[in-house]
Amino acid sequence: MAQKPSIPKGTRDFSPTEVAKRNYIFSTVKAVFETYGFQPIETPSFENSATLMGKYGEEGDRLIFKILNSGDYLKKVDDALLIAKESLKITPRISEKALRYDLTVPFARYVVQHQNEIVFPFKRYQMQPVWRADRPQKGRFREFYQCDADVVGSKGLWQEIEFVQLYDAVFTKLKLEGTTVKLNNRKILAGIAEIIGAKEKLIDFTVALDKLDKIGEEGVVNEMISKGISKEAISKIQPLFNFTGTNQQKINQLATLLASSEEGTTGVEELRFVVDNIEALGLQTATLSIDVTLARGLNYYTGAIYEVSAPKTVQMSSIGGGGRYDDLTGIFGLKNVSGVGISFGLDRIYLVLEELNLFDEVELPTPKVLFVNFGDKEAAYCMKALQKLRSKNIKSELYPSNVKLKKQLNYANQRGIPFVVMVGSSEVENKNYTIKNMQLGTQEVCGLEEIIKMVSTL
RNA sequence: GUGGUUGUAGCUCAGCUGGUUAGAGCGCCGGAUUGUGGUUCCGGAGGUCGCCGGUUCGAACCCGGUCUUCCACCCCA
Asked: Full-prediction pTM beyond 0.80?
């Protein structure tokens, strides 16, 4: 009995057309990364659990796919734990490996492990799949690709400026116009928290603020109050709830608001430097926008925070994000290595390009010529011609078996092969070929050189 | 993790308040046309109605569970 095959929740198969489109995005991103001086590395799909666990907060830990140990893994577990059914305590004993959750933490691990071979500042990019045990939704999968570029070993703000340009360059190349690069700085958020006396509640505070455009001012205020932030404190940051104007106006407002916070003022100065320079250099198709509500869940960011949103016409939230982390390698024992990086969400970019019909120039690797198979003698003659064509990098093939001509032509038709070469006994005898143009329906007898010429003009 | 939603042929979907052998279009295969495709005409194959269990004389339809789909929350690319 044949069981119906299926794939796990949140995973996908990719057809030849889809792969071609995905490769188009990949190669575009890759080319821009390399233009900006980044070099590729790769890390394993799974890491030791200890490397990943605890780096993404409680929520993140829950979403990490754990890999069961091999062998009789339950033998080593205390009976007491098993009887109590304490999954959280049992998990680390029966699972010592886990699928990577993002590319940044494995990269930090890589930097620490290879610190003696690396030339700093180290600029690497990485395009590999990551896995999250999330509930799938539109643009949310359990297996998806991230394309990351990071620089570690430099605190320079010029790199932060370059990343905004890099985003702009990639989306311009993909003809995806109207993206918004949102910019914020963790030090500004910390400064705000300091001003309202909620320094210890920075995470709760930023998570609440992040939801402003979704649940509105009232919702955010309510959430903050429920997290124990006082009403008077919240009223101090009232201006942030209606934070409009040009980037320069926003910076000036923030400077005033945060004047009494040292950290906040540093954040404003960093933001000012980045924004001033980007505005002086100009962007092609993206818009730079300061967004103080931008927090991003990952708590390892310490400075600049980026997020890219798709053009407003499509319903897709974030298609990329990143930021500065001053001490990510610290957890692995390498102190004082500042890093900054960005990430592209390949799968979401794909959905956006698809929705906006921006894939027109993507081409499948379709053969240009099909040789019809009329029998072994004729096929042998065709194979010699194929060797010639292939040595000239012309995509070509022989129909693998001697079936009805109708079927072979239909095959060429369905695959969109533009030329069919027919070699029967008379062609073998006369040392020539009959080539048929499938679009025009015309055909002629000619030599191999003419075939190469005809096909090459495509 | 919480709440809701979806599942019928390879694909897109019909199928009335539970009632005989479950349908269509597209696709597929064959023929008209044994060395000439895309059009047309004719014929054909293909479904234990997601899976397991229950209610009923009788279930694609009702009930429970489970998996899957999509959505909201959480979180995030």
From this structure: yes
